[in-house]
Amino acid sequence: MVERLQARGVQVVAAANPLRSVAYDAAQVRALVDAVEGDVVLVGHSYGGMVISKAAAGAGNVVALVYVAAFVPEAGDSAASLSGKFPGSTLAETLRPVPLGDGGQDLYVAQELYGEQFAADVPEEVTRVMAATQRPITGAALYEAAEGTQAWAELPSFFLVAGADRNIPADAQRFMAERAGSEVVGIEGASHAVFASRPDETADLILRAAGV
Fold it and tell me: Which residues cross the membrane (predicted)?
């Protein structure tokens, strides 16, 4: 996907999302956005949608948002509340907690369940590596409510709906996309890792958002 975007002349920067809390993560991404010269299209996958919705608020150089099987919150919504708004998510039963010194928890998807849960349409040899190299999110981040103005209320947004997502049900994705007034592209049978299984379609939507 990155190669396709670069081939079309798009400068790509993969922000290192800390996955610690919505407010903290958004501040880190916003710092990166502020350091970029020129227009920015922010792309968020999964929990990353929570982050870009906050990070882009009031950022003068962000021209569009792209949500890839992602959360699009209103103030008061959390990732956990949105994923449970419609039936179908089986993520919770696959998560394995690791206690942290501050009393919190890091959450990992059990490696033996990762492929089926997260990336059922991605080759097994790839999902084994994805499972082994996954980065954990804190439990607190999943339950942290969005606060303040969300950027999608002010910016054009685009949403890639993964039709067979087992983390964020497709009905929840369509609900959030409609609420945000997003331009929607749906891919039937696509897993939560739609960016990996359908990189061309993902890149095409980002290019459309960028006007390329």
Answer: none
